[in-house]
Design a protein that fits this description.
Elements: H1 25-52
Length: about 55
């Protein structure tokens, strides 16, 4: 037991990655297209999932 060193609890000093990508036009375009796909095909996919049970 004397070989075990006390390790202090590490604090989270690293900053979270910036959310600047959420503000880019490419990201917003991607989210818009994804939303359109979900609106168009979402109900169909959910129905298929429910019928497989």
């Amino acid at each position: 037991m004397e070989n075990i060193k006390n390790i202090s609890n590490p604090t989270d000093t690293s900053a979270a990655p910036p959310n600047s990508y959420e503000k880019t036009k490419a990201y917003q375009d991607f989210i818009n297209v994804l939303s359109q796909i979900i609106e168009k095909h979402g109900a169909e996919v959910l129905n298929e999932i429910n019928h497989e049970k």
